[in-house]
Automatic annotation (TrEMBL):
<feature type="transmembrane region" description="Helical">
    <location>
        <begin position="75"/>
        <end position="95"/>
    </location>
</feature>
<keyword id="KW-1133">Transmembrane helix</keyword>
<dbReference type="GO" id="GO:0016020">
    <property type="term" value="C:membrane"/>
</dbReference>
<protein>
    <submittedName>
        <fullName>Uncharacterized protein</fullName>
    </submittedName>
</protein>
<feature type="transmembrane region" description="Helical">
    <location>
        <begin position="12"/>
        <end position="38"/>
    </location>
</feature>
<keyword id="KW-0812">Transmembrane</keyword>
<keyword id="KW-0472">Membrane</keyword>
<dbReference type="InterPro" id="IPR004031">
    <property type="entry name" value="PMP22/EMP/MP20/Claudin"/>
</dbReference>
<dbReference type="Pfam" id="PF00822">
    <property type="entry name" value="PMP22_Claudin"/>
</dbReference>
Amino acid sequence: MSPRCPRVPAGMAAAGGLLCGASGLALLVAATATHFWVQRRAAGGTASLGLWHGCLGGQCHPHATTPALLEAARVLMLLSVVAAAAGLALGLSVGTGGGRRARGRVAGATLLLAGAWGHRGHGGHGGHEGHGDCPQGWAGTGGAGGKWGRTAEC
């Protein structure tokens, strides 16, 4: 006789999935809202760049221009947050009423879709352009009044 693995109760598996979904949603919201996507030491202190604004020496300013890649990252991250919230809501509703399996599968698929969008949105911002070591969309610390834009210093 071969040994069998003990079965995990359905409630425990659902609770584990909901815990992963809730923590994923919290991390997606934090990643979308903060300005710590790219950090670098600069002459005026630490400089950081996010989806919505950039900070230098403790002062944060909205982006002067928004390239298409930054807009795409914003859209994908926002879609990811919405899909994760919908998947979590579907996962919480699995315990009520009929159609448990169907709702559970749709919730899982929605959470996977949210993860894929978040991964793609995060990968599309802050990459290298191929020249020097200046990340895409990164602002130099000098130039025209310290504006957030590409400068020759990168």
